[in-house]
Write a structure and sequence with these properties.
Structural class: mainly beta
Number of domains: 3
Radius of gyration: 36 Å
Shape: elongated
Helix content: under 10%
Length: 421
């Protein structure tokens, strides 16, 4: 007839509430409040408390009886609804146990910093007695029986879990994923991302929390208020992202962050929540939980390109055409490499000169770190000894062991040099 369960997400913080759901079709037959929040009075305490037996904290050893539970619950607003089955929600406050055996603070269930809470309910049962050769029910025996089967006993883990921060855009989780960087906003309204924090340790303690959002690329810091979705421990809210050119329209408003153009913006989201004062090794300590994550705005593109080859005659200091070189002369071959990507790239460039299958200049490796939009110049000295056609190649790699070419750009460049006598 009765269904009793704990709906507080596990693990719950030592200083939060145990939310108990008590449902029964009988509640619609008894006196009951109108749906919504209401104050627990003696009129309802006996009706709501009847299905409850005990709550026990395993580590602290405290046991609350039905009357204890309802006494604590009466200090908090309760909730009643009729759908889908009539049910009540009551709140039982927890507090940190001092660690002294059999010494408990009144008005709450005393739990250890880490603990296990068990809730036992009652089952209302009745027996009809009939007698052969007589009509009707002779006697009805009814009463409450405490449920002792393990599957019928509700449990709640007590502990502190750091909040888990996630960022979504258009329903896609973009948290800490460079390949899912948000496109740069180009309108005054910007774009909206969703910030979700899962914090089971504070699920019944706060109806909303604040997170701090920081973008080092612009030096802007803001906060976003995230309301809780029910009593789930999930807190959600929106962050508006605008370019620096439009930020003045929102300056000072919470929940708005600016992003800088022509670069990747690495935006951090930090959630720090106080979960109360606990006794840790006998010392009363204020406990905070914190979690953080980040996301990107502006595509991360690693794209170095070789943009030019210049050949200088060392003896004259003058540039010459690669197709008009002389055997026995010494030349400097200068290569221009430009970063047309969006982030700084470290490039391992390998220069090699061959004639047919013979090596005319052994591979030489150049390591260049190039900021977005910048160009660097590097080169080799070469003295061709034979006449004919030479192949000058430059291979670009992203790692020092030269086995990972840049996969989103041309990774091999080739030039032809003609040498005559």
């Amino acid at each position: 007839i009765y269904n009793v369960k704990i709906i507080t997400p596990s693990p719950a913080a030592f200083d939060s509430n145990i939310v108990i759901n008590i449902s029964s079709p009988l509640f619609s037959l008894f006196e009951h409040p109108i749906p919504g929040n209401f104050s627990l009075t003696s009129t309802y305490e006996s009706i709501i408390g009847a299905p409850l037996s005990t709550i026990e904290a395993k580590v602290s050893g405290q046991v609350l009886t039905e009357s204890d539970i309802m006494s604590i619950a009466s200090l908090h607003t309760a909730y009643f609804n009729t759908s889908p089955v009539p049910y009540y929600l009551i709140y039982v406050k927890m507090t940190s146990w001092s660690g002294v055996p059999n010494s408990f603070m009144s008005g709450a269930l005393n739990v250890n910093f880490t603990d296990q809470v068990y809730l036992s309910g009652n089952m209302y049962s009745f027996t009809q007695i009939t007698v052969p050769n007589r009509f009707g029910i002779e006697q009805v025996v009814a009463g409450y029986t405490t449920l002792t089967i393990a599957s019928n006993i509700q449990s709640l883990q007590i502990g502190v879990v750091s909040p888990m921060v996630s960022i979504y855009y258009n329903g896609v989780n973009v948290t800490a994923n460079p390949s899912l960087a948000l496109s740069f906003p180009n309108t005054s309204t910007g774009i909206l991302s969703n910030i979700t924090v899962y914090s089971p340790s504070t699920a019944t303690e706060y109806s909303s929390i604040n997170v701090t959002v920081t973008n080092p690329a612009t030096g802007v810091k803001t906060y976003v208020t995230l309301p809780e979705k029910g009593l789930t421990g999930y807190y959600e809210g929106n962050l508006r992202i605008v370019s620096t050119s439009y930020y003045s329209l929102y300056a000072g408003q919470p929940g708005v962050i600016s992003v800088a153009p022509a670069k990747v913006n690495n935006i951090s989201v930090i959630s720090t929540i106080s979960v109360g004062t606990a006794y840790i090794k006998g010392v009363q300590t204020l406990v905070d939980v914190s979690g953080s994550n980040y996301f990107f705005v502006g595509k991360i593109i690693l794209k170095p390109e070789v943009t030019a080859l210049t050949v200088i005659n060392v003896s004259t200091g003058m540039p010459v055409s690669p197709s008009n070189l002389l055997a026995g002369k010494r030349y400097e071959l200068f290569f221009n490499m430009t970063n047309v990507g969006t982030v700084t790239a470290t490039v391992y460039a390998v220069v090699k000169i061959t004639m047919n299958t013979s090596i005319a200049l052994s591979p030489q490796v150049f390591v260049e770190t190039i900021a977005p939009g910048k160009t660097v110049t590097f080169g080799v000295l070469w003295t061709p000894t034979k006449t004919g056609s030479y192949n000058i190649t430059i291979a670009l790699f992203s790692n020092p062991i030269l086995d990972i070419p840049f996969n989103n750009t041309q990774s091999l460049y080739s030039y032809t040099a003609t040498v005559s006598s």
